[in-house]
Amino acid sequence: MTPSPTARWTAGWLLAAAWALSFPLFSALAPHRLWGWCAAAGYLAAAAATALGRRREALGAALLGAVAVPLLYLVLTGRGQSEVGVIERSGRLLLDTGRMYVDHPAGVGEYTPYLPAMSLLGVPRALLDGAFGGGGGWAVRLLGDARIWCAAALFGGMAAGRRLLGAAPSPLLPLLVASPVVALPLAVSGVDLPLAGLCCLALAGAASGRPGLAGLALGAACALKWTALPAVAVAAALLGARCGARAAVRCAVAAGSVAAALVLPAALLQPGELWRQVFAFPTGRAPVPTPAGSPLPGHLLAQLGPWGWYLTTALLVLGGLGVALSLWARPPRTAAAAADRLALGLTLAFLLAPAGRFGYLALPVLLVAWARSAVPAGPVPSRVVARSRRRPGSPAPVR
Questions:
Q1: pTM for this one?
Q2: Where are the alpha helices (H) located in 210-334, listed in sequence order?
Q3: What is d(CA 368, CA 11) in angstroms, rounded to the nearest whole number?
Q4: How far apart (Å, rounded) are the C-alpha atoms in residues 295 and 301?
Q5: Residue 379: pLDDT above 80?
Q6: Residue 195 has pLDDT above 70, yes or no
């Protein structure tokens, strides 16, 4: 006997509540434990409301408990994962010295494992602190917190991408925000959210035949974290399949130009620190070990010694080559197919990386779910149709 939709939704909220309750029980991080208690209460209330046939109220309860309450409390009390402080410190350094990396960091807390564009998300806090002398009350704490700007980048990118694709209204997007996949990082750190938003915008730009816009978004993403590089190949393959090689090259050139413009100043001012903190530290090759150590396959292999590190690096390269060959042999032709391929590549990278966290896997899940929420309400945008008609013998636009 097939369970009813109400039973399935109730079970889903209960499963989310069980997942949230694992954080107060097992996590050593206070922000995670706080989020777990709040989110579990919200998800249990959502399950009860769903069982009573009130799905809209259920979604509201989940958003309140898993997002609004913990996010506002953590922001207004100045608590969160260390990444929040790292971003805000890099913003202050950028304004004060023109640099974003601490020279010769002595401990984990002094490392900034992000590319230079990430410091821009910490600039609002530095500006507000400077304007109000470190005071200003709750408004400064709220408007300056890096998590708020990370969330703005995520939601802005997802919304703009949906608009480019002419997406129909979908209940999947608020459900995605209420889910632990987005709610947890949104409340406690937010550091991967801008990358996800820019990737969504880039894929939508490529699917709608806008190589310049796609390249701009990709360049900004690649200047945040180097893990965005696979998105360039995926977007270029999508553009090549739909609009021709010239559009793919335009996208790649635009992405490279924007990324270079944002990264080059730091590379010239602090080349050693850029290498040590952005590349060596996250891969476990810096003098200070990275705290990212979830028991994923790559990390377990790297723990076996130098040969294990080289083995997992070789597997990582082979996985990347496999995804690249799949893009060449069968390029994606829709935003959803491109999101799936990018999610596959990122999942392999996170699983095989010498150092990683389970939380990184939220990015592939978010990309796949966003693409499913961005199904066009009508025909493919006219710009894509027009470009397809200019190419004799080209396949009809994929709807």
A1: 0.89
A2: 211-222, 229-243, 245-269, 271-274, 297-302, 306-329
A3: 22
A4: 10
A5: no
A6: yes
Token pair of 70, please? Answer: 């913990």
Q: Is 112 helix (H, G, I), strand (E, B) or coil?
A: coil
CB contact at 8 A, 20 and 66: yes
- Provide the token pair at 169: 């209204």
DSSP state of 197: H
Those residues whose C-beta lies under 8 Å from the C-beta of residue 180, and which sit 6 or more positions away, are 16, 19, 20, 39, 66
264 close to 252: Cβ distance less than 8 angstroms: no
Q: Give pLDDT tens digits for 48-80.
A: 999 999 999 999 999 999 999 999 999 999 999
Among 180, 201, 215, 182, CA closest to 374? 201
CA 332, CA 319: separation in Å to the nearest integer? 18
For residues 73, 77, 81, 83, the Cα torsion angle rounded to the nearest 10 degrees is: 120
CA distance 66 to 60: 10
pLDDT digits (tens, 9 = 90+) for 255-293: 999 999 999 999 999 999 999 999 898 887 888 887 776
Give the burial class of 203: count Cβ atoms within 10 A of its Cβ; 0-12 exposed, 13-18 middle, 19 or more buried. Answer: buried
Q: Is the pLDDT of residue 231 over 50?
A: yes
Tokens of 79: 């608590």
Length of the chain: 399
Residue 398: pLDDT band with limits 50, 70, 90: very low
| C-alpha pair distances (Å), 27 with each of 32, 88, 225, 325, 392 | 7, 24, 26, 40, 58
* pLDDT (0 to 100) of residue 293: 67
Residues with Cβ within 8 Å of residue 120, at least 6 apart in sequence: 91, 94
Please state, in angstroms and rounded to a whole number, the distance separating the CA atoms of residues 146 and 40: 25
- Asked whether 181 and 366 are in contact (CB, 8 A), the reply is yes
